[in-house]
Design goal:
Oligomer: single chain
CATH class of the largest domain: Mainly Alpha
Order of helices and strands: HEHEEEHEHHHHHHHHHH
Helix content: 55-70%
Distance between the termini: 18 Å
Structural class: alpha+beta
Number of strands: 5
CATH superfamily of the largest domain: MetI-like
Largest sheet: 5 strands, antiparallel
Radius of gyration: 27 Å
CATH topology of the largest domain: MetI-like fold
Length: 358
């Protein structure tokens, strides 16, 4: 139950995406190098600097792009004085050394280009309310000054989407070959089983690497690579189930009624062999998440700046022996929890669908 609840929670986080995470930019990639590798629960004042008019995207465009860019930039500062003419500030370097940096000034026109005709009090209200903003980085920032919490939340969509599409590919290929082998038998069964055994003999990661090198690097290539390496187990299970089901009376009745082989296989037989396939799919989902993280860690999966958990580990694994180890540990913990949740759900489905255990 706990595993299912965690999966549902992560799905909601992935679907809500940019609408709920602190950094709503595409790929949660708002970089501020001056606050790189800051510790968790960092509270700083951010200066909002207008950079030009942009057309705001619609809600669907925001969701499908998994974020949207701002018409302003953020700068971490320590305010010195705020007047109607603008803001004097120190650039943030660290909580201690920031006050030692030279005082800089930003005019009001760079903060609110449409407010040139406002009164002094209206300008001050704008600067205090919309220009100087207190922001909290609950999990700190990474090496590029990006919000780590937002990156972790965005990474959930990467892992879940790879797992979902890869499992769909493996189910489509595996069930098709499995049904054909089990239903027809003979040379069809022998040929398909030969293909399955050849694929089974190749190490999964090695096969994935070969597919990635053949199709090229990229996030979209990971779907194909992972999906085409996990269908063999599905095919073997479906074949075994079809071999036992094809001799039952309802199959003979379908033949007697003149139903086509395709209808008998995919309409009458296949729905009766789905129970073990569902269990395998849960395990394959977990495997797909691990493979995607491994490929991204090796640099041949999701490419920077896509916030894959594997990429995040790669960027910070050299800090594992320092007080910044959490930058690589937290993505690893997320991978572990999500994989464990799918394995627990798979075990629960196995117990629920196995007639012998009931």
């Amino acid at each position: 139950m706990a595993g299912l609840l965690f999966i549902v929670f992560m799905i909601l986080v992935a679907l809500a995406g940019p609408f709920i995470r602190p950094d709503h930019t595409t790929n949660a990639n708002d970089q501020q190098v001056q606050i790189s590798r800051q510790k968790p629960v960092l509270r700083i004042t951010q200066l909002r600097i207008f950079k030009g008019e942009t057309t705001p995207p619609g809600a669907w465009e925001k969701w499908i792009s998994y974020g949207w860019d701002n018409d302003y930039t953020w700068k971490a500062v320590v305010p010195v004085e705020t007047t109607a003419k603008g803001i004097a500030y120190h650039e943030f370097d660290s909580p201690i050394s920031s006050l030692q940096s030279p005082v800089k000034f930003i005019p009001f026109a760079d903060c609110a280009p449409h407010g040139t005709d406002w009164s002094d009090q209206e300008k001050l209200d704008w600067l205090h309310t919309y220009t100087l903003v207190e922001k909290t980085y609950w999990l700190g920032t990474d090496r590029y000054g990006r919000d780590l919490l937002s990156r972790l939340m965005a990474g959930s969509a990467i892992s879940l989407s790879v797992g979902f599409i890869a499992v769909l590919i493996s189910l489509f290929v595996g069930m098709t070959f499995g049904v054909l082998a089990g239903f027809y038998g003979g040379w069809v069964d022998k040929f398909i089983m030969w293909i399955i055994n050849v694929m089974w003999s190749i190490p999964t990661l090695l096969l994935v690497l070969a597919i990635v090198f053949a199709f090229g690097k990229g996030f979209d290539k990971v779907f194909i690579a992972v999906g085409l390496t996990m269908w063999v187990e599905v095919a073997r299970v479906v074949r075994g189930q079809v071999l036992s089901v094809r001799e039952l009376q309802f199959v003979e009745a379908g033949r007697a009624l003149g139903f086509s082989d395709a209808r008998i296989m995919f309409v009458h037989i296949l729905p009766n062999v789905l129970a073990p396939v569902i269990v395998i799919s849960a395990a394959n989902f977990a495997s797909a998440i691990l493979i995607e993280a491994g490929l991204s860690f090796l640099g041949i999966g999701a490419q920077i700046p896509i916030p894959s958990w594997g990429n995040m580990i790669k960027e910070h694994y050299a800090l594992i022996t320092t007080d910044l180890a959490y930058l690589s540990i937290l993505p690893g913990v997320m991978i572990m929890l999500l994989v464990l949740s799918f394995m627990l759900v798979g075990n629960g489905l196995r117990d629920a669908l196995d007639v012998q255990t009931r």
